[in-house]
């Protein structure tokens, strides 16, 4: 046992020795690293230390396709040819789930020096930050929104009434603006939880549970008042129109008769029914305030891959 511990210690020291030696050995090389968050890939490197009158950098990459199908050729990164900056946005270049080799060529006067990224990079290793979930109450609806969203993201949202999690409903949200409306009852506490999936890399992140209560009565009475006012206005209008029809009836009759000659019996019928018709239409107009809007699953047929 003691021997084993000793052996491990020795191996560890040996490892440290090689590691330090390795990292301190290339004196005139760049330190390259890649940072990838939310599918945005940024290559960065330390500035060239050796003095030269002009220095610039060129980035190249090689995926599995170039390696196996194109005889191991290298591809120039789109925006990073002979640049003076110490960074390069490789987001549009590394567009498949391949293991990429990446290298930087430093041009210092007449010399060119190649430095490789020590490990291959795969965009599946990107760090996904969960989008923020917002919940807003609008009347009897809870509006749930997610942002920021990546181009290829699908949000799987679960919603349930507090205490009834086993009967949670799952909603799939695929398209911009990633909003979702859910009908609730007054005073009900609704809970939401979501999973955001980037299909291109089959990687997801969780959005924590959040619960929200719809207010008991305050808005209810506000809506009632609004509806009552609307009804009063409609009735008043109807009465006014009814009076106008009686008073100006003959003129209207004449006009209508002029446009489309109808038998008198029909004409009278129509005029009597006019105010009633108006009430119907207006009542319908105020209805949406009371309507129970079914929660719709937003869906788009567009599938983005690659
Ligand atoms: C790869 O190399 C072989 C032989 O060296 C050649 O015949 C072929 O055309 C090359 N392919 C490409 C895509 O360059
Ligand atoms: C990059 O550096 C090389 C060598 O120093 C030079 O010949 C070339 O003109 C430079 N390119 C740019 C765009 O400055
Ligand atoms: C560049 O190379 C030429 C010959 O190849 C040499 O004469 C010149 O001194 C070099 N310049 C620098 C800055 O190293
Ligand atoms: C995606 O990942 C899950 C595990 O996280 C796995 O079960 C599933 O098969 C994967 N799907 C594809 C298409 O690779």
UniProtKB/TrEMBL annotation:
Keyword tags: Membrane, Signal, Transmembrane, Transmembrane helix
InterPro entries: FN3_dom, FN3_sf, Ig-like_fold, Type-II_Cytokine-TF_Rcpt
Signal peptide from the UniProt entry: 1-23
GO MF term set: cytokine receptor activity
Transmembrane regions listed in the UniProt entry: 222-243
One GO CC term, this protein: plasma membrane
Limits of the Fibronectin type-III domain: 13-112
Name of the protein this chain belongs to: Fibronectin type-III domain-containing protein
């Amino acid at each position: 046992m003691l021997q084993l511990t000793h052996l491990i210690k020795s191996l560890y020291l040996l490892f440290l020795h090689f590691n330090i030696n390795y990292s301190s050995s290339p004196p005139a090389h760049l330190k390259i690293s890649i940072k990838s968050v939310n599918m945005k890939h940024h290559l960065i490197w330390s500035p060239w230390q050796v003095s030269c009158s002009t220095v610039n950098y060129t980035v190249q990459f090689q995926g599995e396709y170039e390696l196996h199908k194109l005889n191991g050729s290298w591809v120039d990164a789109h925006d990073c040819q002979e640049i003076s900056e110490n960074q390069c946005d490789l987001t549009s270049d590394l567009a498949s789930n391949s293991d990429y080799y990446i290298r930087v060529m430093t041009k210092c006067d007449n010399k060119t020096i190649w430095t490789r990224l020590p490990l291959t990079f795969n965009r599946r290793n990107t760090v996904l930050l969960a989008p923020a979930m917002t919940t807003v109450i609008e009347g009897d609806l809870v509006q749930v929104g997610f942002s920021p969203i990546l181009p290829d993201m699908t949000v799987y949202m679960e919603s349930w009434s507090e205490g009834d999690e086993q009967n949670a409903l799952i909603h799939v949200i695929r398209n911009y603006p990633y909003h979702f409306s859910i009908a609730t009852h007054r005073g009900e506490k609704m809970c939401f939880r979501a999973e955001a999936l980037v299909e291109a890399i089959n990687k997801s992140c969780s959005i924590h549970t959040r619960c929200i209560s719809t207010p008991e009565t305050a808005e209810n009475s506000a809506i009632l008042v609004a509806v009552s006012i609307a009804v009063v206005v409609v009735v008043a209008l109807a009465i006014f129109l009814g009076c106008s029809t009686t008073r100006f009836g003959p003129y209207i009759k004449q006009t209508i008769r002029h446009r489309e000659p109808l038998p008198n019996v029909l004409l009278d019928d129509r005029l009597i029914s006019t105010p009633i018709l108006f009430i119907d239409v207006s009542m319908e107009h105020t209805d949406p305030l009371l309507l129970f809007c079914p929660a719709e699953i937003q869906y788009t047929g567009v599938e983005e891959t690659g």
